[in-house]
């Protein structure tokens, strides 16, 4: 399914593309300013967890932005996409007004375009490799906004196309976990003709897209449409099933599953192991976000409780920290604050998320690190003792290392503290499968680019391999694993040589 | 969706439910638990498994009415479906033939204790079980426990059944009478704390099974964290059983009240 260079070049020479190329001069394309994503007003959107911040482009805005794209001979943007979307082809379809066709181009290689259009860090992927950035030092074509536009247009039109499927080969494969990596894998495998079953431990399909990313960034309804597309393509989904506990991998083999893809994610939240951290009112971002996003605890009629506080402190500087602190604001916090040990420059969160958080009145206390929690007589947190930090030499991550400043300690009032300092791989699968090579961090060891583990029929990808990354990198792993598992299974069971 | 095939009220607040769950019935071991959810707005709630019938494909759960979610579950009738049921979760009890085992269950803690008592008996141990509750009505599963124990001692706070007194009084008598090689305690946190203090005095290895607050039950949320031997552990994936002499019970009891106010609000709202 990978698109060869030649294929890309031939596509570009199609009549309609050539016509568009001629229609507008490059000089005129370059004079168009990059589109601004329309946003809900900050004072309105903080009233509800379910008001989407980015509202999406109108058809006119999208077509105008698509016109900026130069339809380069050598589209470097595609090299920046972990799932190799044919970017110029979908954008040029938008330019000519064929939005459904644009959506179908997205679906050739991506199982979740409406999701990616919302949560991918395009600024460090496709858009960073855009001609405008690389050659003109100007803002990139808004590839992410356009992707979202095409996917949303198709969904709202009700004319959702199902990608072409190969003839069924009857080979059963099992997918463990139903997050972005697994969904991407399942989409590719079902297209190749496999009989795909996805096993999910929770009661909802979607993994981190459901329990982690809040509705103001990614509505659950959008995720559900993408899942339903996979269902229509023939993917089976089984909820409330924990592989390794409900049934073992060996049980599934006996039931006829020939190969497995482990996309069980980075389930285990990290804590800092500082005094007082197990006081009430201190919780992981996983717990906080799961209660709200998956269990709907922000709504009155949900049976699941959630802690609301006047002063909420969120520890960390990643996207999950931003999601948590912005959720706190929407749950009624008067003061919602990020405490992060490095400076804003080193924050792993997307610039857009930090920007939106600031618009919403989130306070930032950078170069600050918690060292102790102080609880009241009932065991509920009331204050965080923090220490000021300064930046030293770069560490292994390439970012400048934070160094504590002795004697700089002070306290911050907080009745709820959310710890968002990262996650570790979920141990359930590594612990339950004999013969699986696991690193000392608990991640599954795979042959790079093949995603094959020490057990030949077990492939793995996403956070269970990476230890904590992005939706799109996890999806890229799913695609790679599918391509390689296809080769493995066809050689083994169908005695077919597959073109690499 | 899992169908309820049998229901019995043990007391006003304690209900036994037998529910179809063939895969869990087959896979479950003593010490495992499940997570259930009732209704589309329902909360995920951990519950211990009191027994299973592999042939019928059912498991037995014992539920005490505490808050909105447990009340909703207890209100379901035979033929109704539990919206979501997942498991078995947690590490199973490590059962060996060690000699004489003292099993102590308080209140609905007797439910998860039953499969463990059965396991110890099957492994060839002499099993002495102490059942404790506030009063006679709250003593559950007595017959089943008797079937699998060499000796059963019943203690009630008010003396309405068995002997009057605390679980620890009965335990100490037995400990002074004969050699006990291992002890397990399951019940209210305060009971387990005092059981642990007692067996520590006599240096008897003791396990306690914890009923922490959980959301997913698979290691994801960390709501169930507990300090064991100075280190933070997750009850769902590291437990639910831990060395009772190393558990910080005071912290554990405090953490059980972590959502007290919010839970009461939900209950008041529900009962309106």
UniProtKB/TrEMBL annotation, chain A:
Domain of life from the UniProt record:
Bacteria
Instruction: Please report a single Pfam family linked to this protein.
Output: Pyr_redox_2
Q: What class of enzyme is it?
A: oxidoreductase
The UniProt keywords, alphabetically, are:
Oxidoreductase
Q: Identify the residues that the record assigns to the Dihydroprymidine dehydrogenase domain, covering every copy.
A: 51-158
Gene3D superfamilies for this protein: Alpha-helical ferredoxin, FAD/NAD(P)-binding domain
Please list the GO terms describing molecular function. Answer: glutamate synthase (NADPH) activity; iron-sulfur cluster binding
E.C. numbers: 1.4.1.13
Q: Which residues form the FAD/NAD(P)-binding domain?
A: 172-478
Q: What is this protein called?
A: NADPH-dependent glutamate synthase
Q: Which source organism does the UniProt entry give?
A: Ancylomarina longa
- State which gene encodes it: gltA
TrEMBL record, chain B:
InterPro entries membership: Cyt_c3_hydrogenase_gsu, Dihydroorotate_DH_Fe-S-bd, FAD-bd_FR_type, FNR_nucleotide-bd, PyrK_electron_transfer, Riboflavin_synthase-like_b-brl
Q: Where is the FAD-binding FR-type domain?
A: 1-95
Q: Name the keywords, alphabetized.
A: 2Fe-2S, FAD, Flavoprotein, Iron, Iron-sulfur, Metal-binding
Query: Binding positions for FAD?
Result: 62-64
| GO function terms (MF aspect) | 2 iron, 2 sulfur cluster binding; flavin adenine dinucleotide binding; metal ion binding; oxidoreductase activity
Q: Name one GO biological process term.
A: pyrimidine nucleotide biosynthetic process
Cofactor(s) annotated in UniProt: FAD; [2Fe-2S] cluster
Q: Which domain of life is it from?
A: Bacteria
Checking Pfam families in the record gives: DHODB_Fe-S_bind (PF10418)
Cofactor note text: Binds 1 FAD per subunit.
Instruction: Enumerate the PROSITE patterns for this protein.
Output: FAD_FR
Which residues does the record give as [2Fe-2S] cluster binding sites? 221, 224, 236
Gene3D superfamilies from the UniProt entry: Nucleotide-binding domain of ferredoxin-NADP reductase (FNR) module (3.40.50.80), Translation factors (2.40.30.10)
Which PANTHER family does the record cross-reference, listed alphabetically?
A: DIHYDROOROTATE DEHYDROGENASE B (NAD(+)), ELECTRON TRANSFER SUBUNIT, DIHYDROOROTATE DEHYDROGENASE B (NAD(+)), ELECTRON TRANSFER SUBUNIT-RELATED
Name this protein carries in UniProt? Sulfide/dihydroorotate dehydrogenase-like FAD/NAD-binding protein
